[in-house]
Design goal:
By secondary structure, this protein is mostly helical. Among the domains are: about 130 residues, Rossmann fold; about 190 residues, Serine Threonine Protein Phosphatase 5, Tetratricopeptide repeat, CATH 1.25.40.10. The protein is built from 20 helices and 5 strands. A 5-stranded parallel beta sheet has the order 2-1-3-4-5, with helices on both faces. The N and C termini lie far apart (about 55 Å).
Amino acid sequence: MPPYSLGMGGTVFISYASKDRSFATTICDALEHRGIDCWIATRDIGPGENFQSAVFEAIRSAKVMVLVFSTNSHNSDEVKKEIVLAGQCRLNVIPVRVEDVTPEGAFAYELATRQWVDLFEDWERSIQRLVEQIVKVTGQQPGAVPFTVKPRELVPEIPDAAPRPPQHVEPVKPSPSAPDVPIAVSTVAAPERKSHLAAIGGFGALAMVCVAAAVWVLSGGLNPKAPHIPNDNQIAAADAVAKGKVALDQKNYAEAMHWYRQAADQGNTVAQTHVGYLYEKGLGVPQDYAEALRWYRMAAALGHAAAQRNVGDFYQQGIVVVQDYAEAMRWFRLAADHRNPGAQTNVGYLYEKGWGVPQDYAEAMRWYRMAAEQNEATAQNNIGVLYENGHGIIQDYGEARRWYRMAADQGDVDAEYNLALLYADGHGVPSDLGEARRWMLKAAQAGDPEAKTWLGKHGDN
């Protein structure tokens, strides 16, 4: 339970269908970012705790219920029970629609006199309206939220030429080949050669799939509608994204934020992800991890794979949320199921380390190969690590060298280092210090401190 919750529950009880969990979590974060404490089942029911009892106590303790309403709500028995309990406890219910759908049956009767908040139109204005309604009902002004930012982990010094853990890699700016998908990534210590979480994913067809998915959700998802003609706001959003990209490429971050924010406020998921990235890195705005996560969640809830992956990264690192590998895996899987190669790599990495899931080298290899087929360099490097160490597969230095070389040819620094050590040790290739130095120099020129240490001991020419 977060430190700003009250007793068994919070001021606001968030009711939602299980399929709307992402929407509910996003709304919860938005309210708590504005100082309103919430109770949400996915976070606040502890292991082994009785679900029905926890929900009952939370509703009884709350002062208002926010009902996340969508087509999924009609088929949720739990939501219907929670609405009945709210009535028995004389709890005010504020319906929040996350898609343009009209209540039917019992919901139509129960919610006929309620004042709706439509989050699918103007997110910021609608959230502010929701906050005002909560304040009006409860009579309480929102307070400050004490977020604590956990520093990113650093890798300790290790002896030269020993099997090495991965370097920490900071979130990176979208590359020229992937202008619309900023990715925040992390890497963490491994017991063997350098393997790590993915550094960046490609744009191309993948990002088009992600944008198409977002448009599909916004246009009604499973509810077929008449062909949609873009309105002036949507055209303006596209123009704003284009101008934001130009400013970002020119490193005019304040200007980039200005344009991306205009598009983000219109529900553009690419722009929302960029806004989150700029907040995370403190580019053009003061660095604000909580605000970054809030924007990532908005885009993630609408199916944007890069944003889903970034939310997973926050949980993996424990940035403004409690570190939770299982939750990180959940978000990585959402993005991986959209064929995001970086997320596929991260899923494989968590399986390799046994974080949030039972350790499973075969499953790690399966996910790495999916990403490697999309030419993801980090996945190629990590496959090499599994082959070199014989984890879940017969040890094969020749295969390790082949995969390292694929990744190294794309500039993957860890692969360059690992390949250099194979040449230095004569594993899978004849021992060749000259070739070892050549690859180690590439890693050192990219800023790898361990490569610089190795060269200092073995000569750099």
